[in-house]
Amino acid sequence: MVNKYYGSCLCGRVSYEVSGDFDAFYLCHCSRCQKDTGSAHAANLFAKAGRLVWLKGEADVTHYQHPGSLHTKSFCQCCGSALPSFSESINCVVVPAGSLDTPIPVTPTAKIFVANCAAWSADLSNVPSFDALPGQAKRDPK
């Protein structure tokens, strides 16, 4: 039986299915992924034998290829959410982990390009955690 995972964008205009197994799950700290996500890193799953099928809204998906690099990004043109893409250069389906609606059975394989890590994200172990916006929920004791 082939594993199937489902995902969508924030506004709900686009949904997809990925069939197959994930071979790797990288947290990429390169400067392009920081710009791409607006955060400390990208969290992408890679499926070499994966198959990507758009269930809804394929016409709303825009693709960007960064000039002179392997860096690509697919996203919803309405809400901007990151979406999967098929990377021909590595013959692989690349899935932004946060776009999945289905739980995945894997944890990150590795952090990559850590030499480019944003200084503010190098050690987050002492940052307080909350279940919701601070002041609106009890603090998580972790």
UniProtKB/TrEMBL annotation:
Domain CENP-V/GFA: 5-121
GO molecular function annotation: carbon-sulfur lyase activity; metal ion binding
PROSITE patterns membership: CENP_V_GFA
Domain of life (superkingdom): Bacteria
Matches recorded under Gene3D superfamilies: glutathione-dependent formaldehyde- activating enzyme (gfa)
Pfam families, per database record: GFA
Keyword Zinc: yes
Entries under InterPro entries matching the protein: CENP-V/GFA, Mss4-like_sf
SUPFAM superfamilies, alphabetized: Mss4-like
Keywords: Lyase, Metal-binding, Zinc
Family note: Belongs to the Gfa family.
PANTHER family: CENP-V_GFA DOMAIN-CONTAINING PROTEIN-RELATED (PTHR33337:SF40), GFA DOMAIN-CONTAINING PROTEIN (PTHR33337)
Full protein name: CENP-V/GFA domain-containing protein
Organism: Idiomarina aquatica
Lineage of the species this protein comes from: Bacteria, Pseudomonadati, Pseudomonadota, Gammaproteobacteria, Alteromonadales
